[in-house]
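Quick question: what would this complex look like in 3D?
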Amino acid sequence: DTGVSQNPRHKITKRGQNVTFRCDPISEHNRLYWYRQTLGQGPEFLTYFQNEAQLEKSRLLSDRFSAERPKGSFSTLEIQRTEQGDSAMYLCASSFERRGGVETQYFGPGTRLLVL
Amino acid sequence: AQSVTQLDSQVPVFEEAPVELRCNYSSSVSVYLFWYVQYPNQGLQLLLKYLSGSTLVESINGFEAEFNKSQTSFHLRKPSVHISDTAEYFCAVNRRGSQGNLIFGKGTKLSVKP
């Protein structure tokens, strides 16, 4: 088990371009989360999936953002028409929901996005 | 809604000194509490968590945290820090019975000097 992986680790783009990030969770983890972390702040929740179903979206997730988890394994987060305010670290986490238990979320190393 | 306040954005200490990183939360319902650590250029790692039972929880590297319900606090302590403890520490809460998204504080940067 290699943990949660994210690609790319760094992305520099020009304002107005589209970007896509990928997250590979720990195998057999049925829950997958996306968070955003800006400088000087803690991570903020964006959205989460249980298997392939997107169950919750934060108000931070504007209509320029879309996330998918097509087969309940890896997930992608796409940002369309990027803005400078989108510059942040995008974190992915996964967990295994067990009935009556409490999940521990395991985080990936993040993708750092810089929008010029 | 829940919120988390980490009162100190930066804590400089000398090696082998004790340290306390403060965390207070607000919630109208019962919560689970977590401390995560982020070493330079690495992802967040779970340090310890309080779910129920004993209010004092410990990590494998000497940190401990005590849940204090009356003061709504979950402060992190270590009696003697090492240079390798230099990192950013995040306190987080998760509402009991929720679907799991964590609410984080802004983090505390611990800087251990020789």
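Answer marked as accepted. Chain B touches chain A through 24 residues (CB under 8 Å).
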